[in-house]
Design goal:
Distance between the termini of chain A: 30 Å
Chains: A alpha/beta, B mainly alpha, C mainly alpha
Shape of chain B: globular
Distance between the termini of chain B: 33 Å
Strand content of chain A: 25-35%
Helix content of chain A: 25-40%
Order of helices and strands of chain A: EEEHEEHEHHHHEHEHEEHH
Oligomer: heterotrimer
Number of strands of chain A: 10
Largest sheet of chain A: 6 strands, mixed
Order of helices and strands of chain B: HHEEHHHHHHHHH
Shape of chain A: globular
Strand order of the largest sheet of chain B: 1-2
Number of strands of chain B: 2
Structural class of chain A: alpha/beta
Strand content of chain B: under 5%
Radius of gyration of chain A: 18 Å
């Protein structure tokens, strides 16, 4: 990796209450690639992801030390404006959470908050992002219908469109296909693959097959520490660490 | 056991029927429309126009809800969304303690504090003279009485909104307040309405506190500084004469019946909204 | 961005202000009563009954009202418990499977809970006329019992529901009858029953509209169910209506006494509720 990393984590430690969740994490996330974070449940994958867009701040009893640099700026610098950081990232959570408004308003929500008021501009943005996530043809006739009427797969794609509408650089996905049926899952996976041309994508997943299909790099996290980081094929088929071997054993065999 | 249960529930019906039964003599004498729209209240002549009392009740309750709902909404928002845990733990009990104070104490407080306050500091800006005994006083006292009810229901509703939904908004770069404005409040709206409806029904029936401060003048109020005479105060003030003047007892029972029906309706509407909310969340 | 931050700050201030007003009103009310009532407080107030002319300024105290209120509230709570405990048990343990009926029953009690005390007072009065009872301790107890039953049923119902289903069913599987199971559950929720008693007592002692027509008023402590009984809220009301300043002042002191009684009860019940939820685990 010769280019500057998009995200650079330096000595990140996260305590929630008495538990030391993330232990001295240091890693560089490369630009415009898909990176999957894998590991057993409860090992800190989601915590790591949430530390990138500072959603972790809202967890009760949380203590965060260390630096996370995005495009060179430490996002945990006290002088920095949190909403600007979050605008750079789009988060797709495990279950889709459409906002209680119409399909159109869901996608337009972000841009409106950030100051775009002109209807023509919003119309264009909404259409653009709905097309990018493959939803346009399915919903173009009912943009004003409530977003909750969509199927789960459509809702998740809507959430993706919503996240893309604010013009992020990085997309974060927290096991974002685990609630979906196989067809919707593969649509989303395809989207991730195509979107990496414009965005850096960091995904948390526990489906190794998905990690292999979609990502360029894999990070293996175990008990709050990064055990291994490298290109997908290497980590999955030829892991260097023993713990990694144990974890991916099931997949290889 | 079954008997007790059925008996208790049928209490609702029995009360309704009993009150209706006692109102019948009045209803034979005067038509329902006349009862509800006439302002002439001369029991000795057999004229019973309930309009001023209905209006009195509406004015006092209306003022109470206008004051209490926004205040309690904002307070509940602060307590649930912004307050640090320590602050929340200290503040919450005091809102609950308020609900334990007997109505008559609110009345005494109204007389001691609100009446002079209105008379000396508020009214002079608006009208020439006021004793302070007004629907405004009744409304303020009533508002404080329904604070705990509204705050507790709205807080409950706010707490049911999933953090992930708020996270979704925050992840798009919205501030906490913007999230509340566009997402939380929209989701909480049915619950807020239910709280308001329930609070209104509680306010309609409050007797003694309002009685002590509202002036008890059987006229239709035209400004907040006018005295009023809500329905419960009517019943409470005149029960002594009830049996001596013909039809008076029927009239008061009719007033009670009116109250009963309106409150019943509001109660049921609010409970239905709240149960539907509960069910939607469980699903 | 600046505008957004200012907007948030503005509303945050509004929220804090609202919270201060809402939670501070408790202090405002108790404080006012305290300040106005303390100057007129003396031992006589709680140990003597009104002498002649009490309401125009002569000697005496409000012992009649204090005891009268305790009698009415106590009687109503006991009677209410006798009716509500079976009802709460019935709803929870004998009606399994018929969820719609249970839901409607619960809703009915919720609605009864919302009915204002003046309606119960008026209805109690009707009952009294029907049975030929005069305004008396008995009349007051009847009306207040009606008021208190929904409170008791609701509280008991909620408490019983906190007993885990497994515990309720476990004894059944051991072959005992439903009634024996009920006894076990009752023992389990004893603190909950105390809470219910306190809550209903607190409500009963401070309520005016239900005793207004039904309990009458008297300067003496009632010695039988058929004598009229003075109640604290009414005593306060009458004292305040007097033109004599001294008597009004005594009204404030009486209000203070009632407030203190109710506050003690409320604080006790809050402590009990907290104790209950500790065991809930």
């Amino acid at each position: 990796m010769t280019q500057t990393p998009h995200i650079s984590v330096q000595n990140l430690n996260v305590h929630i209450g008495n538990q030391h969740i993330l232990k001295d994490i240091s890693i560089n996330i490369p630009d415009k690639k898909v990176i999957s974070i894998i590991g057993p449940s409860g090992c800190g994958k989601t915590t790591l992801l949430k530390s990138f867009n500072r959603l972790l701040d809202n967890t009760p009893d949380v203590k965060i030390t260390g630096k996370v640099l995005v495009d060179g700026d430490n996002i945990y610098d006290p002088n920095i404006e949190v909403t600007h950081i979050r605008k750079k990232m789009g988060l797709l959570s495990q279950r889709p959470y459409p906002l209680p408004m119409s399909i159109y308003d869901n996608v337009a929500y972000g841009p409106r908050i950030h100051g775009i008021r002109k209807k023509s501009e919003l119309d264009q943005l909404v259409e653009e992002q709905l097309k990018a996530t493959g939803l346009w043809n399915e919903v173009k006739d009912r943009l004003n219908a409530s977003a909750t009427r969509l199927s789960i797969g459509q809702q998740q794609r809507l959430c993706l469109a919503r996240g893309l509408a604010v013009g992020p650089e990085i997309i974060l996905g927290d096991e974002s296909t685990s609630a979906l049926d196989p067809v919707s899952t593969s649509i989303i996976e395809d989207l991730f693959i195509s979107l990496k041309e414009k965005y850096t994508i960091v995904l948390v997943t526990h489906i190794l097959r998905q990690a292999r299909r979609v990502s360029d790099y894999i990070i293996f996290v175990y008990m709050g520490k990064i055990i291994e980081f490298g290109p997908t094929e290497e980590v999955l088929l030829n892991p260097k660490q023993e713990l990694t071997q144990e974890y991916v054993k099931g997949y290889i065999s | 056991m079954l008997v007790f249960t059925l008996a208790s529930v049928s209490l609702l019906l029995v009360i309704g029927i009993g009150l209706y039964y006692k109102s019948i003599p009045l209803l034979h004498r005067l038509s329902l429309t006349e009862l509800l729209t006439s302002s002439i209240w001369k029991p000795l002549k057999g004229l019973f126009g309930f309009f001023p009392f209905i209006m009195g009740t509406l004015w006092v309750t209306g003022i109470a809800i206008i004051i209490a709902l926004p205040l309690c909404l904002f307070a509940a928002l602060y307590i649930v969304e912004y307050a640090p845990t320590r602050v929340r733990r200290i503040l919450s009990p005091f809102v609950n303690l308020l609900s334990g104070i007997p109505p008559v104490i609110f009345g005494v407080w109204g007389v001691l504090f609100i009446i002079p306050f209105i008379q000396k500091y508020v009214a002079p800006h608006f009208v020439e003279f006021s004793t302070g005994y007004s629907v405004l006083a009744g409304g303020i006292v009533l508002a404080v009485m329904i604070f705990p009810l509204i705050v507790s229901i709205i807080s409950e509703v706010l707490r049911t909104i999933p953090q992930e939904l708020k996270d979704a908004s925050l992840s798009l770069g919205a501030t906490k307040w913007e999230t509340i404005k566009h997402v939380v409040l929209r989701k909480a709206l049915p619950g807020i309405i239910a709280a308001a409806v329930l609070a209104i029904s509680r306010a309609f029936g409050e007797t003694i506190a309002v009685l002590m401060v509202c002036g008890n003048n059987a006229v239709v109020p035209h400004s907040v500084f006018d005295p009023g005479y809500p329905l419960p105060a009517l019943i409470a003030n005149n029960y002594g004469e009830m049996l001596s003047i013909p039809l008076y007892d029927s009239a008061l029972m009719f007033a009670a019946l009116l109250l009963f029906i309106i409150i019943l309706l509001f109660n049921i509407i609010s409970r239905v909204i709240l149960t539907r909310l509960e069910r939607r969340l469980a699903a | 961005m600046r505008r957004r931050k200012i907007e948030e700050l503005f509303f945050k201030l509004l929220m804090v202000l609202a919270t201060i007003i809402v939670s501070g009103s408790f202090f405002l009310i108790v404080g006012t009563i305290f300040f106005k009532g303390v100057p007129y407080m003396n031992l006589d107030m709680i140990t003597k009954t009104p002498g002649g002319g009490f309401y125009i300024g002569k000697e005496g105290g409000i012992l009649n009202a204090i005891i009268g209120s305790f009698y009415v509230a106590g009687g109503a709570t006991v009677l209410g418990l006798l009716i509500s405990i079976p009802v709460a048990i019935f709803i929870n343990m004998y009606m399994d499977g018929k969820t719609f009926l249970v839901g409607t029953l619960r809703m009915a009690f919720d609605v009864l809970f919302g009915i204002p005390s003046i309606v119960y007072g008026a209805f109690g009065f009707l009952i009294m006329i029907y049975f030929g009872i005069r305004a008396s301790l008995l009349g007051g107890i009847i009306a207040v019992t009606l008021l208190v039953i929904p409170i008791l049923v609701r509280t008991l119902d909620e408490v019983i529901r906190t007993v885990p289903l497994e515990l309720r069913d476990a004894t059944l599987s051991l072959g005992s009858t439903r009634w024996e199971m009920a006894k076990v559950v009752l023992r389990q929720i004893r603190p909950g029953i105390f809470t219910a008693i306190l809550l209903s007592f607190g409500r009963a002692i401070g309520d005016v509209a239900s005793v207004l027509f039904t309990a009458g008023f008297s300067d003496n402590i009632p010695t039988s169910l058929h004598e009229p009984a003075a109640t604290l809220p009414l005593a306060i009301f009458f004292q305040l209506s007097s033109p004599v300043e001294e008597v009004q002042g005594r009204g404030y002191a009486s209000a203070l006494i009632l407030t203190i009684i109710v506050l003690i009860i409320t604080v006790l019940s809050e402590i009990l509720i907290k104790k209950l939820s500790k065991h809930k685990l």
